[in-house]
């Protein structure tokens, strides 16, 4: 039988190779996230142009204030939705715990059922299905042996005792001999 275990040096080299691949993937992921962030900022946030006059500065402040209000309203709506869902999940968990505690499952027992009763239970009471499982079986005639017949026709044991009772039970013996 060949030994299927890996040598410790092989394990160490495999582990270091896996760690190196993982580090490369993490570094690539960090670079990709930085690129995505720069692209998003470029699309959604135009470069800041500082106004030269007081009126332009006030107008910029008004625009920024309006944008902050819109974002704040969205944040508030989302927060309300999240709180509602969290509350609903907590209530459902409470109901589950309550229902688990209320009902104990009884140990199941084997129930003997006929095929008709099983079909009626599965299909419902409106479907009356009768299934005669013995209809297609062969009819076999039982042979009666003569020995069994003699054993059955032995008769009543009390009668035999009464027959043997006369003359101390010797009467029957004399009758059978002659």
Give a structural overview.
By secondary structure, this protein is mostly helical. It has six helices and no strands. The two termini are 91 Å apart. The mean pLDDT is 81.
List keywords for this structure.
178 residues
Structural class: mainly alpha
Largest sheet: none
Radius of gyration: 49 Å
Given the C-alpha coordinates, what overall shape results?
A: elongated
Strand content: under 5%
Distance between the termini: 91 Å
How many individual helices?
Answer: 6
Give the number of DSSP strands. Answer: 0
Low-confidence spans: none
Helical residues, percent: 55-70%
| Average pLDDT | 81
* Helix-strand string: HHHHHH
Write the layout of secondary structure elements.
Layout: H1 8-44, H2 54-102, H3 115-123, H4 146-152, H5 157-165, H6 171-177
Short description:
This protein has helices at 8-44, 54-102, 115-123, 146-152, 157-165, 171-177.
């Amino acid at each position: 039988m060949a030994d299927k275990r890996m040598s410790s040096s092989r394990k160490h080299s495999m582990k270091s190779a896996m760690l190196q691949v993982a580090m490369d993937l993490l570094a690539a992921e960090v670079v990709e996230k930085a690129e995505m962030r720069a692209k998003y900022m470029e699309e959604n946030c135009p470069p800041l142009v500082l106004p030269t006059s007081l009126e332009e500065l006030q107008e910029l402040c008004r625009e920024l204030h309006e944008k902050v209000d819109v974002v704040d309203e969205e944040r508030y709506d989302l927060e309300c939705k999240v709180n509602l869902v969290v509350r609903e999940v907590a209530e459902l968990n409470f109901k589950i715990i309550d229902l688990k505690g209320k009902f104990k499952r009884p140990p199941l027992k084997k129930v003997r059922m006929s095929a008709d009763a099983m079909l009626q239970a599965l299909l419902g009471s409106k479907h009356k299905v009768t299934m005669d499982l013995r209809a297609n079986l062969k009819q076999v005639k039982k042979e009666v042996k003569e020995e069994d017949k003699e054993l059955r026709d032995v008769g009543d044991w009390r009668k035999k005792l009464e027959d043997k009772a006369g003359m101390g039970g010797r009467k029957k013996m004399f009758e059978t001999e002659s």
